[in-house]
Design goal:
- This protein is an alpha+beta fold.
- It is built from 2 helices and 7 strands.
- It has a single domain, classed as 2-Layer Sandwich (60s Ribosomal Protein L30, Chain: A).
- The protein has helices spanning about 65-80, 105-115, and strands at about 5, 15-20, 35, 45-50, 90-95, 120-125, 135-145.
- Helix 2 (about 105-115) links the parallel strand 5 (about 90-95) and strand 6 (about 120-125).
- Helix 1 packs parallel to helix 2 (about 105-115).
- The protein is globular, with a radius of gyration of 15 Å.
Length: about 140
């Protein structure tokens, strides 16, 4: 059995459907959903990994600052596509030297951006990203209106 919770979208009524089976662990307190269904009529966009660089390319050495900036950068990419956070079906996040202390930062930022409409999400611990000071990266699959 699954729970389908449509995510609100714009005028043409395309909706993402969140699926969290009752027989599985509830992932929502951790900031994600088990699965998200994109309607067949939807166009899909893929947003490349967004890191914590500010507009000058500078990276803070602080993990929490990088995560906050990366989600701000993701929001800017969504805006450029004419999309909203509730149109994001899937996130993949990459965390350098991941440990449990970083989960609270990650969960808080996802919930701030997505609220109740939590996308499916995968966290991949990595030893290193594209450039040495980079500690976090987030990529997204987005349903367009």
């Amino acid at each position: 059995m699954t729970i389908g919770v449509p995510k609100a979208t714009a005028a043409n009524d395309l909706k993402l459907t969140i699926v969290n089976p009752k027989t599985l662990y509830d992932p929502t307190p951790n900031g994600y959903s088990t699965a998200v269904i994109v309607p067949r009529e939807a166009r899909v966009a893929y947003i490349s990994g967004q890191g914590g660089q500010d507009s000058t390319g500078a990276l803070s050495p602080d993990f929490a600052v990088q995560v906050k900036q990366a989600y701000a950068n993701l929001r800017t990419a969504l805006d450029a596509l004419g999309a909203r956070p509730d149109q994001v079906a899937k996130l993949t996040v990459f965390v350098v030297d991941h440990d449990m202390s970083k989960l609270e930062v990650l969960t808080r930022n996802v919930k701030e951006m997505f609220g109740e409409a939590l996308p499916a999400q995968t966290l991949i611990p990595v030893p290193k990203l594209a450039i040495d000071p980079m500690l976090f990266e987030v990529e997204a699959v987005v349903m367009l209106d």
